[in-house]
Amino acid sequence: MNLTNQDIEDLVAFRRELHRFPEISNEEKETARRVVGFLHDTGADEVLTGLGGHGVALVYDSGRPGLTILFRAELDALPIAEVSDIPHRSNVEGKGHMCGHDGHMAILAALGRLFGRQRPASGRVVLMFQPAEETGNGAAGVVADPRYAAIRPDFAFSLHNLPGTPLGHVRLRDGVVNCASRGLRITLEGRTAHSSMPESGVSPMLAVSRLMPRLAALGSGSFDSDEFSMATVTHVCMGEPVFGVAPGHAEIRVTLRTRQDARMAGLCAAAEAMVREEAEAHRLQCGFDYHEIFVASLNEPQAVAHLAAALDAEGVSHDGAELPMRASEDFGIFGHASKSAMFYLGSGVDRPNLHNPDYDFPDDLIAIGARIFMRTARNLLG
Asked: What is the reported pLDDT for 226?
């Protein structure tokens, strides 16, 4: 089964429409509506909406016993203003598809068209358009949704476009492919004072100045080792932007990162202990909360083998270079109850990087990604 020239034309137009109207994590209501509308004519046997937020799942069922295979794309864009003169640039101020999720959705939409014309020979295919990948709560929300149990797959597959890699070349390996990470927000509370009498207050200034380098130094181990950990201070603020008040409050945000989930608890404990030590030394109260929690993403060997077989059958070059990545990806949640794997599809060596304000997903990847996924499904389901 192949996409027609008209299919490609329609899919490119759909991808560019999504690009023009980006919605960030947990706000993807209209994006979900556009997906359902575009695939309405494919006659999915079941359409689930509002999964884990604004998630959408379309089921194409053979009506015969067999495996359930899930393919996942992301609905969300980023809070990044697009800097571009392309005709389909973002129409939404301060928001843009700078990670290529619009292209991932178009690839799954291509599968919807193909399975709408001919169901798999056995089992069923689930096309999962997942919300809120960028904030780490989307996959967890989908899996926690009570309706997910009825479509829980035997195998789950996903892809991500990858600038810096030749167009159409794939990076794939088993084991860890994306790190675990979480954002730690630290608050320090003292007491404000008049700026002419700072000694009458309790300032967090010294504690902040000591904590920034100490937190950054928490990282350890080579990235090639499972013992790898990393801490990156991403934001600091203190007091009010005035001249007459010595500060009594400060906030530090730090991203904690490990290759293995098991290492994360120890890194969190070490960061919190360090903050408590500095807070006590400087007569401050401290607090902690965590955000954007991503588990490590691991590719299961059997799932990888199925993807590799599809790549070979389609003549798509692949290797395991540049993996794993330090960056995080919430697809790992699907692997907790299913055999899962993600591959990385090269979007060109000269393209801007992901999250750059001028990034645009290359339309040529739509057909390539769809071919790989379709071959994987046909190999497993017939």
From this structure: 87
Binding-site residues from annotation for Mn(2+): 99, 101, 134, 160, 355
| CA neighbor of 129 nearest in space, from 155, 101, 88 | 101
Fold: same for 5-178+296-381 and 180-294 = no
Residue 82's Cα: distance from chain center in Å? 19
Residue positions forming the annotated binding site: 99, 101, 134, 160, 355
pLDDT bucket at 77, cuts 50 / 70 / 90: very high
Q: What is the 3-state secondary structure (H, E, C) of 37-104?
A: HHCHHHCCCEEEEEECCCEEEEEEECCCCCCEEEEEEECCEECCCCCCCCCCCCCCCCCECCCCHHHH
Run of H or E residues at 36: helix 29-38
- Give the whole-angstrom CA distance, residue 220 versus residue 230: 7
Domain formed by 180-294, architecture = 2-Layer Sandwich (3.30)
Say whether pLDDT at 64 is over 90: yes
- For 155-180, write each residue's pLDDT tens digit: 999 999 999 999 999 999 999 999 99
**Residue reference for tokens 């490119």:** 12
- Structural domain 5-178+296-381, CATH architecture: 3-Layer(aba) Sandwich (3.40)
Residue (of 272, 267, 201, 290) closest to 238 by Cα position: 201
Average pLDDT over residues 353-378: 98
User: Tokens 């799932």 appear where?
Assistant: 303
Q: Indicate whether 224 pLDDT > 90.
A: no
Domain residue extents for the chain? 5-178+296-381, 180-294
